[in-house]
């Protein structure tokens, strides 16, 4: 497994899922809430493709993330608000998206030996030239510039001096410099960015100097006189290097870590509100299909790994009976309050917690993140 894969797997264990009563002082007892409200399930319609300026984006929750959520809900038996789970998925970027171009004529491209996606044939060809280094420079001639220039052009970044654009060697010198320095940018913009200089030292830097004229070779030994020629050749034979896709699936972590995906990242951020709603709806549907108990209290959806059960179905131990009696005796009782009765119950706090967990797992009580305990009814 490579480092990226290990990093992604480690990130899946970052769900906090700590109940609030483990983080703060015991809460005061509240008035009993009505748990009989009619369940209001979010729409079961298919997740909406969020149309942005450039892309159609659909969120997905990876199976590994779903498995961890289910496992944690089952393990501690705590009933949680659904929004606390899906917000953690969003905040920790644990979701994936499928992406399509709004313009159906456009396709994504992927190297046949790499997982990286590119957004156009031009992007793909430039990536091949400047990052995969498929183009080789070979000197075909050497020329001495003797022209008396009144001014020259200077690269602000590398300080390379070029003759004026009207000079017959200008294009070849620029192309060689772009490739040698791996300056991956629009050629015309680069030329436009060059500064004009009348400085004597800048003019001397190029006059009477030997300039190497280069040709550009591809791996099959085809040669070209310009970078544009190489670019056109790769685009014309793009299928030799890349596979085209109408739709791609990428993790949000990968989108954030890959600067070439900045366009997707920008559009996701601008449409985050709708995508968040889709992730919440998707999570609800997955947990519902998995037979988790989802219900509403005061317009908030809660989820428990265990369905409510009738008390009469189980023969309870004496310890469980004691705890149930304490729960029944006070409306809105909390876990810290039950623990404070450990002497009256003649039980250790650890044993009390074990019994509460078991009663939750068999569906007789619900224990909320706040620490509040409710009896359930089938």
* Mean residue pLDDT: 86
Shape call:
elongated
* Oligomerization status of the protein chains: single chain
Structural class: alpha+beta
Q: Please tell me how large the radius of gyration is.
A: 33 Å
- Which strand order does the major sheet show? 15-16-3-17-18
- Give the uncertain stretches in residue-range form: 1-13, 23-42
- Number of distinct beta strands: 18
Measured as a percent range, the helix fraction is 25-40%
Question: Secondary-structure map with pairings?
Answer:
Blueprint: H1 3-11, E1 50-51, E2 55-60, H2 63-76, E3 78-81, H3 82-91, E4 96-101, E5 108-111, E6 117-118, H4 121-130, E7 136-144, E8 152-154, E9 161-162, H5 170-180, H6 187-193, E10 195-197, H7 200-204, E11 210-217, E12 223-224, H8 227-236, E13 242-245, E14 247-251, H9 252-257, H10 262-270, H11 272-289, E15 293-297, E16 300-304, H12 318-329, H13 335-339, H14 342-345, H15 349-361, E17 365-368, E18 373-375
Parallel strand pairs: 3-17
Antiparallel strand pairs: 1-2, 2-4, 3-16, 4-14, 5-6, 5-13, 7-11, 8-9, 8-10, 11-12, 15-16, 17-18
Helix pairs in contact: 3-11, 4-8
Structure description:
This protein has three domains: 1-30 and 306-378, Arc Repressor Mutant, subunit A, CATH 1.10.10; 41-104 and 249-304, no CATH class; 121-239, no CATH class. Residues 1-13 and 23-42 have low confidence and may be disordered. The strands form five sheets. It has a five-stranded mixed beta sheet with strand order 15-16-3-17-18. A four-stranded antiparallel beta sheet has the order 1-2-4-14. The chain contains 15 helices and 18 strands. The protein is of the alpha+beta class. 38% of the residues lie in helices and 20% in strands.
């Amino acid at each position: 497994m490579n480092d990226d894969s290990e990093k992604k797997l480690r990130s899946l264990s970052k769900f906090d899922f700590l109940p609030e009563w483990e983080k703060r002082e015991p809460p005061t007892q509240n008035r009993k809430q009505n748990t009989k409200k009619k369940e209001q399930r979010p729409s079961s319609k298919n997740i909406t493709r969020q149309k942005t300026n450039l892309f159609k984006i659909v969120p997905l929750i990876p199976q590994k993330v779903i498995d961890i959520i289910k496992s944690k809900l089952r393990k501690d038996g705590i009933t949680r608000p659904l929004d606390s789970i899906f917000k953690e998925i969003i905040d920790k970027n644990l979701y994936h998206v499928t992406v399509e171009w709004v313009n159906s004529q456009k396709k994504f491209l992927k190297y046949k030996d790499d997982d990286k996606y590119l957004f156009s044939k031009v992007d793909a060809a430039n990536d091949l030239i400047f990052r995969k280094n498929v183009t080789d420079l070979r000197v075909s001639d050497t020329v001495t510039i003797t022209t008396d220039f009144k001014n020259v052009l200077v690269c602000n970044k590398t300080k390379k001096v070029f003759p004026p654009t009207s000079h017959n060697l200008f294009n070849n010198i620029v192309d060689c410099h772009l490739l040698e320095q791996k300056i991956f940018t629009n050629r015309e913009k680069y030329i436009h960015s060059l500064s004009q200089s009348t400085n004597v030292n800048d003019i001397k830097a190029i006059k009477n100097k030997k300039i190497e004229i280069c040709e550009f070779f591809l791996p099959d030994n085809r040669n070209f006189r310009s970078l544009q020629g190489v670019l056109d050749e790769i685009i014309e034979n793009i299928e030799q290097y890349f596979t085209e896709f109408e739709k791609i699936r990428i993790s949000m972590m990968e989108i954030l870590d890959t600067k070439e995906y900045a366009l997707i990242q920008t559009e996701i951020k601008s449409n985050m509100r709708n995508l968040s709603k889709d992730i919440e709806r998707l999570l609800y549907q997955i947990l519902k299909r998995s037979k988790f108990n989802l219900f509403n209290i005061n317009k908030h959806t809660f989820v428990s790994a265990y369905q409510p059960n009738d008390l009469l179905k189980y023969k309870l131990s004496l310890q469980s009976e004691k705890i149930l009696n304490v729960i029944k005796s006070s409306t809105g009782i909390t876990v810290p309050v039950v623990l404070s009765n450990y002497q009256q119950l003649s039980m250790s706090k650890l044993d009390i917690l074990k019994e509460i967990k078991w009663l939750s797992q068999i569906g007789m009580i619900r224990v909320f993140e706040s620490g509040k305990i409710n009896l359930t009814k089938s």
